[in-house]
Amino acid sequence: MAASSTALASFFGGGTGTFDVLHSFSTYLAATIGALTVTGSLLAFAKLQGILSGRPMSFPGQNLLNGLLAATLCFGLVAFVGEPVAGSSMLLLGTGVAGALGWLVAGQVGGADMPVVITLLNSASGWALTAEGFVLHNNLLTIVGALIGASGAILSSIMCHAMNRNLTDVLGLEKKALPASASAFCKITGECKTTDVEA
Fold this sequence. Notes:
Blueprint (H helix, E strand, L loop, with lengths): L1 H11 L8 H28 L13 H21 L5 H20 L6 H23 L2 H24 L4 H4 L29
Helix pairs in contact: 1-2, 1-5, 2-3, 2-4, 2-5, 3-4, 5-6
């Protein structure tokens, strides 16, 4: 939240005509990644605390919607970097879209896989901090953010490897259909006989 708020405040309170490509790029990334991290973290907290159900939130066409939101973020980045002052609406739009995307992606993950999502969001917060460092011209923020981002990504990879799963599977981006004969494993056959120890 701090990275997103700082990026927005830096842009809207910093005057006009002072944004080069790197500064505009960093501002957009800090705002959007920060918003995605906030909403994803809030949903993860709600699931782990039992406020919301730990079951994955899914609906038809969810991955398509996620893809459209991601494409909108990319379009907003190009539009904002091309003309930061005139594209200020793209910054606000991108921040809102990123927040919605963070909620949707975290929502389609079950409660048992939330630790992986948390480490992934921790990594995202690090990269948001790195972008904020470029916005504020602060080398310390850039370095610390890169360390947090890299360590979070490595930890997420290790956890997925330990579960013998890939990240897209954990995030619910892969829909694996059960084989047609899978129902045979659930079929109950035979007879049940009851006994009474006092008889």
